[in-house]
Amino acid sequence: MIKTAILTISDRGARGEREDKSGDAIKSGLKDIDAIVTTYDVIPDERELIVEKLRQLSMDCDLILTTGGTGVSPRDVTPEATKEVIEKELPGFAEVMRMESYKVTPFAIGSRAIAGIRDKTLIINLPGSPKAVSECLGFIIKVIPHTVKLIKGNVTDCADDIKKSEK
Q1: Which of 26, 32, 35, 154 is most deeply buried (CB count within 10 A of its CB)?
Q2: 0.90 exceeded by the pTM?
């Protein structure tokens, strides 16, 4: 079971002015893997608050999925906060999300999402729109269980995990 935290980063969502459909999209996208959402929160686009939450959540979770704050507007600081927290970057996740998203929209070039590891926790930034969340999570979901296992020290044969993910 992958203990998962969903962290929605949205000023309007944190003020209760917008329903968090992106968090719901993440919950739906997790149905294909053995994950349980243990924590869900909506916070404003404040770098220090994001850093604090990521540090806190990484103490109890195997996976943290953020949504929002990955664009280029002045308040978009999720990647910077994530970089401050992670110890190892995993650029492949973001590269695949941008590459595959570009096939859907050229605006994917503007995404600054990153992914990485803090202690034994995988952290992945997802976009803010529900549609983009569903698409991006779909591009990477099959790799998440294998990556989490490796981070936790459960070294397995990649070929076996590929076969399991294809079922």
Answers
A1: 26
A2: yes
